[in-house]
Amino acid sequence: MTAQNPDHAAPTGSVAVGAVGQKSQSQGQDHGLSKKGLSAGSVGLIGATVIGVSCVAPAYTLTAALGPTVAKVGVQVPAIILVGFIPMLLVALGYRELNKAMPDSGTSFTWAVRAFGPWIGWMAGWGLVASTVLVLSNTAGIAVDFFYLMLSQIFSNHALAELASNPLINVPTCFAFMLAATLVSYRGMETTQAVQYVLVGFQAFVLILFGCAAFWGVANGTAFDPTPVQWNWFNPLAVSSFGAFAAGLSLSIFIFWGWDVTLTMNEETKGARSTPGQAATATVVITVLLYLLAATASISFAGVGTGQFGLGNPEIQGNVFFALAGPVLGPFAILISIAVLSSSAASLQSTIVSPARTLLAMGHYKALPEKFAQVSPRFQTPAYATIASTLVSSIFYGVMRFISEDVLWDTITALGIMICFYYSITAFASVWYFRRQFLKSVPNFFFQFLCPMLGGLILGTLFFTTIIDAMDPNYGSGSHVGGLGLVFILGMGVILVGLAIMATMAIKRPAFFRGETLSIGISDGKEDQGLDELPV
Q: What pLDDT score was predicted for residue 30?
């Protein structure tokens, strides 16, 4: 069933501005937000927060990020985590304000269109979709690796773990994971929540168990290299160099990215204006607490030296938790592999939510073909968009896995460029959309202007810095073409592909780009006075 798209009513508390935002003479009203046929009220605050944490996937994200970060900053990892946490929180606060004003599943796409117009808005949507669709392939790949690793531990057969390196086995297994995740997402948010409660609850339990067991090992003298915790570890001002700060900001992209999935569910949550923003903030805070516990416990237990289990040992830095599982948890070490597997599987399923709903909104407002606006009449989910996003991701993974694993991982690294791109645009959209309001009160000044402005500037600066750094042929895997780093070529390639598709859509679907289906708007400060029913 294709979502209906009658005349669009402006959202409560916004006014249309500029030529593209003026009232249509044929329709007699400006073109604002409208509903898309999703299952309203199916997600509560706890459910949205759980889905947000699952998308961030703290267990598998930290096991890969902890070692390389220790290599750069030593015991200052907790401080670096806090440094990385800051821009994410600042941007999340801007997202919260935009969601209060415009609860729409298109999030970055819709908000940037309302603030800056169709061209910038379309590219913001592209940034979100490209990032999440391609990250799906990385998440599925991690799930495959830990699936066979878990089997090797269960059956005490190391050869089973090596099966993950065989593309003829790896790719079909990845497709199976993608299919399972797609089926869960297609069935709606109720099914998604039920699955996530189990997967997220288990990985959080194991991370907390791991942290407590590591500290117990330090206390009873069984730790590998007991290192007393010091408050200086948590002081960002104690980080010794600007390079370490830059590492922290880069780290924030990967270890905190995914919290904005809570906003894309806004049309399906109870309290569409308030719940998604609260869930986003809660997701970021819960995640940073889990990271701080696990990272501090690991450093205290194993130290940062280069010994067998030291976090400075390059042989274990790619998978720190797996290396420390035996010394810390003893006979329960397999719980770590299961936790990382459940973490990646949970993230795989919840990550599908964002691109599907953004594509749905882009189809609904005619920025893409109408088939993207199709909603399942039974499950009230983005039918075509869900299948399309996972199919593209699966094909991408399969092709890249056979071509070169370096190309696959360099593509994932290049997505940091896109993530900074659409996060910063959305943060600046908050500043511009609320420009008449942020001097009217202290909360407005902080949450609608200062926080998103600082967050946008930080991530925007990191966007340009990463582009420059990625030009180095030694960046990422060290692959290059004509002296330019492969990460730079891939990152800019994703942007250029987006520009090409946008130009094609502008020719084939000019109504959106003329502001006839979704127009520029500006806040008049009345959004918080209640959520009026938007047209279906």
A: 44
Q: Is 415 contained in some domain?
A: no
Q: How far is CA 369 from CA 122, 131, 295, 511, in A?
A: 13, 20, 46, 12
Could you count the other beta carbons within 10 Å of the beta carbon of residue 530? 9
Q: Which residues of 320-349 are buried (b: 16+ CB within 10 A; e: fewer)?
A: bbbbbbebbbeeebebbbbbbbbbbbbbbb
228 exposure class (CB count in 10 Å sphere: 0-12, 13-18, 19+): exposed
The phi and psi torsions of 113 (rounded to 5 degrees) equal: -65, -45
* Residue in 100, 9, 93 with CA at minimum distance from that of residue 527: 100
Q: Token digits for 375?
A: 């909603």
> What is the spatial distance between Cα 300 and Cα 321, in angstroms, rounded to a whole number?
14
Q: What pLDDT was estimated at residue 21?
A: 34
pLDDT at 417: 87
Low-confidence ranges of the chain (pLDDT < 50): 1-30, 528-536
> Is residue 533 in some structural domain?
no
Domain that holds residue 364: 40-405
Model confidence, pTM = 0.87
How far is the C-alpha of 170 from the C-alpha of 525, rounded, in Å? 53
Largest Cα–Cα separation, the chain:
79
What's at 385, amino acid-wise? A
- Beta bridge partners of residue 16, listed in sequence order: 521
Residue 380 lies in a domain: yes
Token pair, residue 314, equals 């390059």
- pLDDT value for 7: 34
Q: Residue 521: helix, strand or coil by DSSP?
A: strand
Helix pair 58-73, 275-302: axis angle to 10 deg: 50
Q: Can you tell me the distance from the alpha carbon of 76 to that of 230, in angstroms, rounded to the nearest whole number?
A: 10
Looking at the structure of the chain, the number of domains it has is 1
Kindly list the distances between the CA atom of residue 454 and the CA atoms of 78, 446, 450, 467, in Å, as whole numbers in the listed order.
Answer: 22, 10, 6, 20
Q: Strands 14-16, 521-523: parallel, antiparallel or unpaired by DSSP?
A: antiparallel
Give 410's Cβ-side CA count (13 Å radius).
Answer: 27
Q: Which residues contact 222 (CB under 8 A, 6 or more apart)?
A: none
Contact 269, 41 (CB under 8 A): yes
229 three-class SS: coil
Q: How many whole angstroms separate alpha carbon 150 and alpha carbon 206?
A: 15
* C-alpha to C-alpha distance for 79 and 143, rounded to whole angstroms: 29
Q: Percent helix, strand and coil across the chain, each rounded to 5?
A: 70, 5, 25
pLDDT of amino acid 31: 55
Asked whether residue 519 is domain-assigned, the answer is no
CATH number at residue 357: 1.20.1740.10
DSSP letters, 2-50, are BPP--PPPPPTTEEE-STTTSPPTTTSS-------S--TT-B-HHHHHH
pLDDT digits (tens, 9 = 90+) for 358-389: 999 999 999 999 999 999 998 899 999 999 99
